[in-house]
Design brief:
Elements lengths: L2 E3 L5 E3 L15 H13 L4 E3 L8 H10 L7 E6 L6 H15 L6 E4 L7 H14 L5 E4 L3 H8 L10 E4 L11 H7 L4 E4 L11 H10 L3 H9 L5 E3 L6 H9 L7 H10 L13
Parallel strand pairs: 3-4, 4-5, 5-6, 6-7, 7-8, 8-9
Antiparallel strand pairs: 1-2
Helix pairs in contact: 1-2, 1-9, 3-4, 7-8
């Protein structure tokens, strides 16, 4: 498993596991837990979740999946913007810890920018870190002006990642946000790397997949993983889907592949507003 170093020194896997839209069908609960545990066995030890997902039901599912395996997991959680005051963030984190059945979250993110001043949320992150409730913190869905403002604040340079929408059809961050983060060695965490399944059977991806004897989803995932400073967190609700995602690590796209995809999915010629799902 390829590893990526976060600014605070921790190494995490380049390919993790997302959980958005899990726990929506009670009949699939056991299969989803089995899928997450299989992902851990295959080395996909980063699991991303959030208090928003299922109103906390996904955190409970993740807690069950990692029970007895907590020391092997790098757990990413998120606080909602309307909870992001200093006291609100601390309370939200404690609630998440209880649902997850754990004493700590490895990386705690502000889910997106809200009305609360960033200084208040940072104060909470610092308190939570000092208490051992979280080990590090970051942000999600922050565009370039947001991370620039964050970095200018006292303590803002401790940000570990910006989790954003990034895939072969959503390349806007390549113009300015991704270079800014690269210059500061802050990895991007890419959610929806397969566009929530909408890239499956895309003709352009099909042509590349045929050369690699792979699926279009695997090619889309390999494209996101082509650089050494992007973490991908695809969701996989079945064991077979988990195995397919893990196999994408073995696909090495050639210059011909990348150029061919650039023709169809053009890099951004200028700045674009950050896209969000």
């Amino acid at each position: 498993m390829r590893m990526i170093k976060l600014p605070f020194g921790e190494e995490v896997v380049a390919l993790g596991q997302g959980t958005w839209h899990m726990a929506e069908d009670p009949s699939r609960r056991e299969e989803e837990i089995t899928a997450l545990r299989l992902g851990l066995e295959l080395g996909m030890t980063l699991i991303d979740t959030a208090e928003m997902y299922g109103g906390g039901s996904v955190e409970r599912l993740v807690g069950e999946a990692v029970a007895g395996l907590r020391d092997e997991v790098f757990l990413v959680g998120k606080v909602l913007p309307h909870h992001a005051t200093t006291e609100g963030t601390i309370t939200a984190c404690q609630d998440s810890l209880r649902r997850l059945g754990t004493d700590w979250i490895d990386l705690y993110l502000l889910h997106w920018r809200g009305p609360t001043p960033l200084e208040e949320t940072l104060a909470a992150f610092e308190k939570l870190t000092a208490r051992g409730d979280i080990r590090s913190w970051g942000v999600s869905n922050f565009d370039l002006p947001d991370v620039e403002e964050l970095a200018a604040l006292t303590g803002g340079s401790a940000v570990q990642t910006d989790q954003v929408l990034y895939n072969v059809t959503r390349r806007g961050i390549e113009y300015d946000l991704l270079p800014w983060c690269r210059e500061r060695r802050i990895p991007i965490m890419a959610y929806s790397p397969i566009e929530q399944g909408r890239l499956i059977d895309h003709p352009a991806l099909n042509a590349v997949a045929a050369r690699h004897r792979a699926t279009t989803a695997q090619v889309a995932l390999a494209w996101v993983l082509r650089d050494d400073d992007v973490i991908a967190i695809p969701k996989a609700g079945t064991p077979e889907h988990v195995r397919q995602n893990q196999a994408a690590l073995d696909i090495h796209l050639t210059e011909e592949d990348l150029n061919e995809l650039d023709v169809v999915f053009s890099p951004p010629p200028g700045p674009r507003p950050l896209e969000i799902l």
